[in-house]
Write a structure and sequence with these properties.
By secondary structure, this protein is α/β, with parallel strands linked by helices. It has helices at about 10-20, 35-55, 60-65, 90-105, 120-125, 160-170, 185-205, 210-220, 225-235, 235-245, 260-265; strands spanning about 5, 25-30, 70, 80-85, 110-115, 135-140, 145-150, 175-180, 280, 285. The mean pLDDT is about 95.
């Protein structure tokens, strides 16, 4: 059993905490907003219950959940064997966190980021030990998705990178090696290019989000269409990623139509807000978007 500190209790952070607890680790889950922590714990209880009913848990949901401790500070960083940052995709916020964690954590504790777009080397620059910083980019919903990108920064020590690979395998996930630290890494660059074209086609009135999602599921074997993926991740997160990629000169990966920004301005943030490209029932069931 290892002690894992997960920073950020949103959609991704809560999922990361859950899979770490499922693997037998003792998890501290921190967020500055108490309401977010309470929501995360309730969501994990529901998720674990569903997995148990499907026969996918080796123990009772309550036993897994008991290994997750919600906390409101970084004090547990000093005892952690792994630290995984899953804060919002805002570089300044992440840099501040990594600077603090570098001072608080044990010297041999890897500092990992779940960032989906920011180069790991930029985050490591805030620390005095960049050799222990790496990327562990999970895909959501984390308990159901089998993929994690393990990203090597410019100064990540080879042994830390290999520890990351082993840690992800021990969680029951498939690690994808990312040997070069570029914006968006591997999988998000591929998805971003597809999503850019999908969003621009819908914005131009060529097709609908529903039909394009169906086409990608039925024609290309995707488990979920690009707009379903976007709603699950949060459209506000997509806007932050686009802004960062644009700041890095990665214009080919950015939606050109402004469609996502318009939805965010309307409060359509995705599943977490009950509306995005689709509408959602209070229970989270997806339904076709109502015309406004």
């Amino acid at each position: 059993m290892q002690r894992v500190l997960v920073i950020g209790a949103g959609f991704m952070g809560a999922g990361i905490a859950q899979v770490c607890a499922q693997a037998g680790h003792q998890v501290s889950l921190v967020d500055v907003k108490p309401g977010v922590l309470a929501k995360a714990m309730a969501g994990m209880e529901v998720s674990l219950g569903k997995l148990a009913r499907k026969g996918l848990l080796r123990e009772e949901p309550s036993e897994v959940l008991a290994r997750v401790s919600p906390v409101d500070g970084l004090d547990s960083a000093a005892q952690a064997d792994w630290i995984i940052e899953a804060a919002p995709e805002i570089e300044a916020l992440k840099l501040e966190l990594f600077a603090r964690l570098d001072r608080l954590a044990k010297p041999d504790t890897p500092l990992a980021s779940n960032t989906s777009s920011i180069p790991i080397s930029r985050l490591a620059s805030a620390t005095s030990h960049p050799e222990r910083v790496l990327g562990l980019h999970f895909f959501g919903p984390v308990p159901l998705m089998g993929l994690v990108e393990v990203v090597k920064g410019e100064r990540t020590a080879p042994e830390v990178f290999e520890r990351g690979m082993a840690f992800i395998r021990a969680l029951g996930k498939h690690p994808v090696r990312v040997e070069r630290d570029i914006p968006g890494f591997v999988m998000n660059r591929v998805f971003a290019a597809a999503f850019r074209e999908a969003a621009d086609l819908v914005a131009a009135g060529v097709t609908t989000a529903e039909d394009l999602d169906a086409g990608m599921r039925l024609g290309y074997g995707w488990n979920a269409g690009p707009f379903e993926v976007a709603d699950n991740a949060g459209l506000d997160t997509f806007v932050l990623i686009d802004r960062f990629l644009k700041s890095m000169g990665e214009n080919d990966l950015v939606v050109r139509s402004g469609l996502v920004e318009k939805l965010v301005e309307q409060g359509r943030l995705g599943r977490k807000a009950g509306k995005g490209f689709y509408d959602y029932t209070p229970e989270g069931k997806r339904v076709p978007r109502k015309q406004e």
